[in-house]
Amino acid sequence: MSGIFGLFQRDGAPIDPADVTKMMAAMAWWGPDGRSHHIAGSLAFGQLLLHNSPQAHHEQLPRQTASGLLLTAEARLDNRAALCHQLNIPHPDRDTITDSQLIEQAYAKWGEACPDHLIGDWSFAIWNPQTQRLFVARDPHGNTALYYFQDAHRFAFASCRDALLALGVPRRLNELFLAKVLVSWPHHPGDQTIDQDIHRLPPAHAMTVTPEQTAVWRYWRLEDTPELHLPKFEEYVAGFLEVYGAAVNGRLRSSRPVAVTLSGGLDSGSVTALAARALNEQNQPLTAYTAVPLYDTQNTVGPNRFGDETEFARETAAFHPNINWQRLDAHGTDPLEGLRRSLAINNEPGHAGANFYWIADLLQTAQQQGIGTLLTGQGGNASISWTGAPELASLPVVWRESGWKTAVKQALPFFALRALLTARATRQTYQGSAILPAFAQQLQLRQRYIAAVGRNFSASESHRTPRMRRFGIIEPGSSLLGSIWAEFGAAYQMEVRDPTLDKRVLMYTISVPDRFFTGPDGQDRWLIRAAMAGLLPDTVRLNHLRGRQAADLGQRLCQVSAAVDQTLDQVAQSEAVNYLDLSKMRAVWQAIQTERNLASTQKAVTILLRGLNAGLFFVLRK
Predict the structure, then answer these.
(1) What would you report as the CA-atom Rg of the chain, rounded to the nearest whole angstrom?
(2) Fewer CB within 10 A of the end CB, N or C, for the chain?
């Protein structure tokens, strides 16, 4: 994905060209195919270009429009045909018109309501010199990143925080954000980052900035999608395949070869199957990468889990004649190197530190092989492959499947359940986290969680409904998943695209009544299983086991034990001692060296690696 940046002197002072140079240099890795900027008095826009589609070769940004507006954008629009029709683009121009030109014309037609009409991964900024009004928007739920900083004198935005830090934005630690990462607090991101003074523009949000004020609003709510009622289940499947196929096919528009991440499951497996089918019709290959363990995982995964994706992924790849399947064991990238790379790219500690090593290895391999577009299916858990939640509609089912205690909690009225969760939160000790107890107490983390529990209840619909549970996973309007993937892709000079997060796919799957996700014999994820008949081998399509990523993490850490010890010592000499329980982290490290089993591996993920990710943030912070 290309990158954009901008600077607006709210006090009317002229732009200092040196500031523009600093911003552009700080995020230079976003623009392997060109960089440009435009200064107009108290405003500057810039773009760093990646040729992510055939039309991107014709992009010339920032650009002043015929009406005097100034525009910069990074965009891949997946509903180009519909937009061209709605905007009356002449047929001879429809294949060559750039995505930013479509955004320009959409803004001319619909004004600040234009984001509702754009499908794909995009962010853009438009400056109106007549009204002295800056309009900035980001896609509904795609893989893009946009950050901003503001004070009384200036407003700055960029796809990359490095560009804002280059302006001298202070690095004041957002302690609550850090704490939420450490304890894996649900639904925490929103507009917050690890830096108090830098905010992210969340997905499905837009903003206007004037010399006097800033207004931010959410322009699209997945939660408002109505339920879909069709006569037969087969009609739901057909409609789903049409929407999902369009989402995959739209993401195949690429200047360079396309690849896909392929696990042994249904999410990436279905993306792979649909992409392979579409590319095969064009006599084009599809490269598929599967991350596999280096060491035996038999004792480090739980029941109904597998730690090696090889066999299921092999069967999916063999099902399509044009798939070039590659197993990647990340033998040259250890977990600590993965943490360092992720911090250099994302500039803040993250939740999934245990996975960064194989992600970095996969992206590096794809870059070396000239891949321009990498497809994933990471957003599928609550959309295309939602398990269904029959227990939320049937107390006998939850009693049978989960026991009487869970059934009783399910039957409790709202006020009683709120009291129960409040009591549980009051006793919370964060044993599965590396957070320092004194730090959690200082932040009154338990009290904050209790307050959050209260806010998340409503009289009309509780978090216990299937729909609300799914929203808790998708996090519409607040997820930071897209930001992470956008920055990772930019670092490896490619675009990471996820059709399971397509606006149309999210809306369609959330509209399907929950009962249709459960099969006639009680099978879960029935919508995707039924849709993939003939597209995935039945051994994969009907498999009920789930993969466990980084299942050999303990063995990998033990192979670099001296480096782990050294890193723990470095963290102990940093500011991180004010936030991390180093004694607990060392105890987990000792346990994983003594015996590598399911319990020690899980603690290595949630306590040791997540703690080291936060600790290295302080060690490496600029």
Answers:
(1) 24
(2) C
Asked whether residue 226 is assigned to any structural domain, the reply reads no
Is residue 180 in a domain? yes
Q: What is the mean pLDDT of residues 429-454?
A: 85
pLDDT value of residue 423: 61
Q: Mark whether 10 and 68 lie in a shared domain.
A: yes
Cβ–Cβ under 8 Å, residues 259 and 286: yes
pTM, whole model, 2 decimals?
Answer: 0.93
Quote the mean pLDDT of the chain: 92
* Per-residue pLDDT at 460 exceeds 50: no
* DSSP element (H, E) containing 134: strand 133-138
Kindly state whether residues 55 and 187 are assigned to the same domain.
yes
What domain range is 606 assigned to? 553-620
**Residue 185 maps to a domain:** yes
Last residue of a domain, one of 220, 254, 272: 220
Q: Are residues 116 and 141 in the same domain?
A: yes
Q: Which of 127, 143, 88 is nearest to 10 (CA)?
A: 127
Q: Which tokens sit at 162?
A: 């490095």
Are residue 420 and residue 364 in the same domain, yes or no? no
Q: Which of these ranges, 8-12, 161-165, 415-419, has the smallest mean pLDDT?
A: 415-419
Contact criterion met (CB below 8 Å) for 333 and 357: yes
Neighbours of 530 (CB within 10 A): 18
569 burial via Cβ count (<10 Å: 0-12, 13-18, 19+): exposed
Other residues' Cβ atoms within 10 Å of the Cβ of residue 171: 13
Q: How many structural domains comprise the chain?
A: 4
Strands of 70-77's sheet in order across: 63-64, 70-77, 120-128, 133-138, 205-209, 214-218
Q: What is the pLDDT of residues 79-116, one digit of tens each?
A: 999 999 999 999 999 999 999 999 999 999 999 999 99
Co-location of 112 and 240 in the same domain: no
- Spatial distance between the Cα atoms of 77 and 346, rounded to a whole number of angstroms: 25
pLDDT digits (tens, 9 = 90+) for 501-517: 999 999 999 999 999 99
| Same domain as 576, residue 448 | no
Q: Could you report the per-residue pLDDT of 520-571, keeping only the tens digit for each?
A: 988 999 999 999 999 999 999 999 988 999 999 999 999 999 999 999 999 9
